[in-house]
Amino acid sequence: MPAKRNRVSILLVLILSSLVCLCIVWLTSGFILGWPSMIRQLGEPSTGLGTTERVYLTVYLALHQKDLDSSAGDPAQEIEILVEEGESASVVVERLQAVGLVHNAELLRNYLRYRGIDREIEIGRYPLSGSMSIRQLAEQLRAAETLEIRVTIPEGWRKEQIASQIAADFPDLTEEALLAVMASRPMGYFFSDFVPENASCEGFLFPDTYSFDPESSAEEVVAAMLTNFDARLTEELVIGFLAQEISIYDAVTLASIVEREAVLNDERPLIAAVFLNRLELGMKLETDPTVQYALGQQEDGTWWKQALSYDDLAFVSPYNTYEITGLPPGPISNPGLESLQAVANPEETPFLYFRARCDGSGRHSFATTYEEHLQNACP
Q1: Which residues, 6+ apart, have CB-to-CB distance to 144 below 8 Å?
Q2: Each residue's pLDDT tens digit, 178-229
Q3: Contact predicate 351/366, CB 8 Å
């Protein structure tokens, strides 16, 4: 009897084993039949993979095929990551997981390894989103944006403002280092011969949008702005300055005043004409921006004090054109091309005065006589 029971038990085990095998075959048949297609969808494997690693990664990724094309992380997460020198792909993946851009770090790490992208990630910026799939994230990590620092310098800023703006965007460049370079006379440019020995770079730091290498020195940054100015100082501009019987340096000084006075481009030639007319007649320029420049930085950290008082207008400074006759010693800001062109090509007009209109339009009312000027005052 025991032998008979053993035979029955063995038979039952064989039957159960057969049923399990049939179930496995039935469950995996779809996977096996679709295997070639799955492999093709994974893309070309890296030639640097060994046989064992290649087989393992192929099987692993094939089993996670759907996950490769689903959102990798939190769709609401959109950030730009900076990959720095020495960071491995594994470290980058860990950072992505930490901020919620990737939920399955192992899947991304294995896909990067399978495709060989783990060795292609370079230093740079990468705009990424949690809504991207693993495949999309991997491809994005192949396309680093150039590591550049873009700085926009508005027209009419003084050198201290420019230095502060640039230093704020650079990790290792200080405002003090920039100002030290800006304080010296620009050398080695076409316009250099027309700049007085004791002059600074004020007036020649051309307003524009610049792209800098993050490791640029203060000298290189300032040189980029000076080079830009030098390129803008065309023969036509120089001829225009000479036609007004004004030197290049004085023309830049006057343009820096026009830059601070003008709001609308079409009025720049008129404002330039008023100042040139006053210079020709030996009249004081009496322009507020020169006083604002002389007063410097205010207690609240701002520049260009508004609502000047009578005491301000009497402030003792060679830049105060209410007190001195003629132009100040040098530029009070860094003018844009339109203001330089306005000085080279002013309007032909007898106007000697102008004042801001009271309608908030930014326009000015111009006058030939002082009486007319008084009539243009706001009610």
Answers
A1: 83, 121, 122, 123, 124, 125, 126
A2: 999 999 999 999 999 999 999 999 999 999 999 998 889 999 999 999 999 9
A3: yes
Q: Quote the CA–CA distance of 237 and 251 in Å, as a whole number.
A: 10
For the chain, list residues with pLDDT below 70: 1-39, 144-147
What CA–CA distance (Å, rounded) separates 192 from 190? 6
Using alpha carbons, select from 230, 167, 203 the residue that is nearest to residue 333: 203
The span from the CA of 160 to the CA of 182, in Å, is 9
Q: The whole model's pTM is what?
A: 0.68
20-146, CATH topology level: Dna Ligase; domain 1 (3.30.1490)
Q: How is the chain split into domains, by residue range?
A: 20-146, 149-232, 246-375
With contact defined as beta carbons under 8 Å apart, do 121 and 141 qualify?
A: yes
How large is the greatest C-alpha to C-alpha distance in the chain, in angstroms? 136
- Count of CB atoms within 10 A of residue 154's CB? 14
The shares of helix, strand and coil residues in the chain, as percent rounded to the nearest 5, are 50, 10, 40
Question: Dihedral of CA 187/193/195/199: which sign?
Answer: positive
Distance of alpha carbon 122 from alpha carbon 108, whole angstroms: 17
- CA-CA distance, 134 to 112, in Å (whole number)? 9
User: Which pairs from 371-378 meet CB under 8 Å and 24+ separation?
Assistant: none
